[in-house]
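Input structure tokens:
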């Protein structure tokens, strides 16, 4: 891994002929729990995301992009530091991020960049390494959210304030205001635009409430998974049938309180969210949409499998409505950059802190090393003047610990040797676009990337979803994982034959040689990353 790059002054000089001596800006857009299955650039059959697709058409779409720990706070810490969870100290959401440690925004700031963090932070401690920050409290609220912001340019002091409106719109408003009024136009910048959406409980913008009302979605082929041979999957608490709450998740907060949750706490939270957070006008619009659904739900009195299918449809409609707002706001950012002469010297990144289950295995949420939550969307649009290619699909094996070194190399800043990720910039630049056809046509082209194995480690147990701790290795074809603690079990998948992680072939006839090879690679990764939890790989 090459860690030695030109200082920013030298790199800018080298770029002068093609980039008009303009430093490369970075706009890093991230959502919470956005599934790649609901992005049309990734072939979604249930959703159309024209603005996210615009980024893919003018950049690189990574099809083998994964996380190191499929949980919001830990994933964000991995991105900030370029290190796995055990190395940055934020292993699960009960922890507090150590803001004194090295992060890539601090390194960019030291190199002369202006840095700003706007939106969802979710790391408990206040941001460090930013010239300006304006963050949602905790998980954030969809309506009239409370923010904490640095005051008078002093990031050591903060004020709390509630803003009126919808969170995704407000976060974008704040980001565009910082770009237009608060930044120093003489300096390059790195701007984080991090949305709460589409995190649970998938509350749509009022203008999107009627979208998809007439749509019906096909159940995933493995919706009725019986989890045979996968004990940890049997013990989880994240099924749509059993664990998706009528009041909290699906907005069935009826006024006479005859619909009840299986969990009284969830019911209280749900009724508070749908009554106390909104003003009267918002509540009226909300009731106009949801009250007829509530009344019909009561009248239908669905039971058994009919109820499960109804829950899935309600979940999908609300989730996709929330994504529609995200996509619209991505378009606002692209348009602003274009209209203000910034598009051709700005690296734009779109990603999520992890993937999400859209009914696969009968689930919602994330956490598992199974494909839908382990894999995450990643689109990087690097301007042509800086070597970027358009409309390209990459199958390179990449991970969210790779973001920090990528941003640093793109800015011409030396990558510290203790960063565990690898820069993706060479993968973006070495690709050759076809001379024929549009960028949309070229998105069907896939580059040949170097082989790399990825390491995963999830820690948070038991929490509300009871996903057991596990670590594992992912190669281009195979996924080997070890659950430990209450459940002690190995799982092995041939993803070419079984892309949905349905058939655990660990210990099956003919897999011994493969298993030994993967265990050896797994141990090598644990040693490479110095993970202190190195359970035996020979049991």
């Amino acid at each position: 891994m090459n860690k030695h790059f030109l200082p920013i002054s030298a790199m800018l000089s080298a770029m002068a002929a093609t980039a008009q001596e303009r430093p490369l800006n970075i706009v890093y857009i991230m959502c919470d729990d956005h599934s790649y299955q609901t992005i049309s650039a990734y072939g979604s059959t249930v959703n159309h995301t024209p603005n996210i697709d615009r980024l893919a058409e003018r950049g690189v779409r990574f099809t083998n992009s994964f996380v190191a720990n499929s949980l919001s706070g830990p994933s964000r810490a991995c991105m900030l530091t370029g290190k796995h969870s055990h190395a940055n100290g934020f292993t699960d959401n009960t922890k507090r991020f150590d803001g004194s440690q090295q992060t890539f925004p601090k390194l960019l700031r030291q190199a002369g960049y202006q840095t700003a963090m706007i939106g969802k932070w979710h790391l408990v401690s206040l941001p460090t390494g930013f010239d300006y920050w304006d963050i949602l409290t905790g998980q954030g609220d969809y309506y009239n959210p409370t923010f904490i912001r640095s005051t008078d340019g002093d990031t050591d002091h903060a004020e709390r304030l509630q803003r009126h409106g919808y969170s995704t719109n407000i976060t974008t408003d704040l980001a565009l205001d910082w770009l237009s009024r608060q930044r120093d136009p003489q300096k390059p910048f790195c701007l984080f635009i991090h949305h709460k959406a589409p995190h649970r409980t998938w509350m749509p913008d009022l203008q999107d409430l009627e979208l998809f009302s007439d749509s019906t979605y096909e159940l995933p082929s493995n919706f009725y998974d019986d989890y045979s041979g996968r004990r940890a999957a049997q013990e989880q608490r994240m099924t749509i049938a059993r664990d998706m709450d009528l009041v909290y998740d699906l907005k069935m907060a009826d006024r006479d309180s005859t619909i009840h949750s299986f969990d009284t706490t969830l019911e209280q939270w749900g009724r508070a969210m749908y009554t106390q957070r909104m003003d009267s006008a918002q509540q009226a619009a909300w009731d106009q949409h949801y009250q007829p659904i509530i009344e019909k739900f009561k009248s239908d009195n669905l039971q058994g499998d009919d109820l499960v299918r109804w829950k899935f449809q309600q979940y999908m409609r609300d989730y996709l409505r929330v994504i529609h707002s995200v996509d619209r706001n991505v378009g606002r950012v692209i348009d602003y950059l274009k209209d203000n002469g910034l598009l051709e010297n700005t690296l734009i990144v779109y990603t999520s802190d992890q993937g999400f289950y859209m009914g696969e295995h009968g689930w919602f949420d994330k956490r598992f090393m199974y494909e839908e939550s382990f894999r995450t969307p990643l689109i990087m649009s690097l301007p042509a003047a800086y070597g970027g290619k358009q409309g390209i699909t990459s199958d390179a094996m990449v991970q969210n610990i790779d973001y920090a070194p990528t941003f640093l190399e793109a800015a011409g800043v030396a990558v510290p040797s203790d960063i565990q990720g690898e820069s993706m910039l060479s993968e973006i630049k070495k690709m050759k676009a076809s001379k024929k056809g549009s960028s949309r046509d070229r998105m069907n082209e896939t580059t040949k990337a170097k082989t790399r194995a990825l390491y995963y480690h999830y820690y948070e147990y038991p929490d509300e979803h009871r996903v057991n701790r596990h670590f594992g290795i992912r190669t281009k074809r195979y996924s080997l994982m070890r659950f430990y603690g209450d459940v002690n079990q190995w799982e092995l998948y041939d993803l070419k034959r079984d892309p949905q992680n349905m058939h655990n072939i660990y210990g099956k006839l003919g897999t011994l040689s493969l298993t030994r090879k993967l265990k050896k690679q797994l141990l090598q990764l644990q040693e490479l990353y110095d993970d202190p939890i190195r359970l035996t790989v020979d049991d």
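The CA atoms of residues 22 and 345 lie 7 Å apart. The radius of gyration is 23 Å.
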